[in-house]
């Protein structure tokens, strides 16, 4: 009898955890496991705000996939997914194709620009290692160039962050720590630097506890951030954005650096491959399979799970992706062993911590509100926990965050 | 009786050595000493190739002027010279003016682009701290951006250095050490990087011993540099240069980074202030005074001293500027004490070492030819010597180069 073939697409939090759980669970004789990923490394999406601001080197936010997979059980294919052919059960890759009996789609999300003109062309993203280090270098180049020019262009020192959600706020926390260093480094007057955060929603960090939100806003304002809340970006142009409240006449904010940190959608491959989706996210069955496809699981940013309590989708996070990965590994194990009753997914929210820089944060952990050093400590615990779940204590020692005091 | 006032313009090698020698030589009651400089720091012009390539941080190539001057004897004015009014014996500054009885012009040189079209607009320079860190950040940004683009622009990895003189060759030595690091850092294929050195003269390092030149060329070629000798840059355009040999049809070399390291001329202030000059350099009298002005000394890159042996001007170097500074301090001391016979300058060439990177160099020291580790060691001795002459052992300990093995 032919061994079934399990193909996992993506080595993010969800895909990688599925892989390491499966390689433990499944014997070599039971199934073949193939992991496909664009890069030969995994990166910590939740740490990218640090690499983008330049407070943490980008090599610290990634590690080789080969560090955590068991090559005797898992074949690793470094390639980019082009399309999934569900009828023929195969995945078309840029440099080849791969057949599957069971497929796990864990391709991650993509920035959502909501059709706002110019954002794709002129805004930077905190999306992956490539985009983060480009953003960091762009900011640094602006500071390096400022003193070179006879006519000073203050817009080089103007940075706009679009979005006051998790990514926007965490990036602002790092950026406001980095700016004084940059000013010192490039002989730039701190007073000339302008940081603006533009958020269309009526509040910073929608869904977060208001007391914690106040803490975050006043902390960041003290460090120099101006918040424009309830204000939408209408258009990005070279060197500026147009913003406006409601129907009021849009006005211009000049800035050589515009960062778009406001929207995530599912992967474009989802729609391209004919799955029914809302902004690239598939409302998966309780066992995390795609409706109508008994051998296809979708997890992470391209999956959509409803929070029954508020009847709204859970936001895509590393935490939920990893919990989904653990369940999918067990469910695929069951299918391979010809069991028919699969487990259903329910999200166990252990809490959320939003960093405000090196030594400050806000969060709710096990139901308890935290700010400052305690929250910051918990943030590092959370970061190390993801490493532990995927790569064990060895990976924590290698890539963990220990600057906790 | 009014104390005479000595004004020194520029805190480069020549100006700073003049100042520190004068503050030892002259009593507080004998004269007032004023040092004028654009920045509050001195930078090591001869180390800028390292800061430009990114192999040495730019803060290591500078130190505060206040570290080496005696504030009880010297007034420091941070301002930029606009013009010298020789008739009224005053210097016009951007934010004020200063009168003098004795003036030392040590304003340093400027890049000379020989009217080549586009160089000023599109080429980077290794001229000062601002330009060096901008060049470094520009190169890094090109590498950071390379992987971000769906359509790869290989010209981002193409670097052209115009000029195979001292600055060009030393920069290439550092750059070829830095490139493998950048490739690793930004996941770029080393084979894609292209470094071209274009030199109009018929040889690399004109005036250097041919055996040492061969060593330098073959070392740099082995590290990936392509030399186009006897080839002139005809024009720089955005993203490219046009080059040609003699009368042949110019052809294009695409490169997002073009560095102009080929020419130095005297300071524009010289001509603006009505001194008779050749490319901004004044052929000074043997006592280093400007012809016709008994109270004005000119030293460093804006002065011109003939090497009688070959009847050609000495090239402007830190070594000659410092020797001039020492002499000028003594001559001003003499004038203040009403002596009329001033010392005449003769250059004591202690040797020349051209670095080829961290641990390699070529040079002639005390008449002896050196290559490799020995030459590299001597280069660091030379670098530390300049620190010692200006700031003594303390400055060497603080800013010296001790990575000698």
UniProtKB/TrEMBL annotation, chains A, B:
- Which SUPFAM superfamilies does the UniProt entry name for this protein? FAD/NAD(P)-binding domain
Q: Which domain of life is it from?
A: Bacteria
Q: Which UniProt keywords apply?
A: FAD, Flavoprotein, Oxidoreductase
Q: Name one Pfam family in it.
A: Pyr_redox_2
One example of the protein's molecular function in GO is: NAD(P)H dehydrogenase (quinone) activity
Q: Which residues form a coiled coil?
A: none
GO BP annotations of the record are: aerobic electron transport chain
List each copy of the FAD/NAD(P)-binding domain by range. Answer: 5-325
What cofactors does this protein use?
FAD
Q: What is the similarity comment for this entry?
A: Belongs to the NADH dehydrogenase family.
Protein name, entry field: NADH dehydrogenase
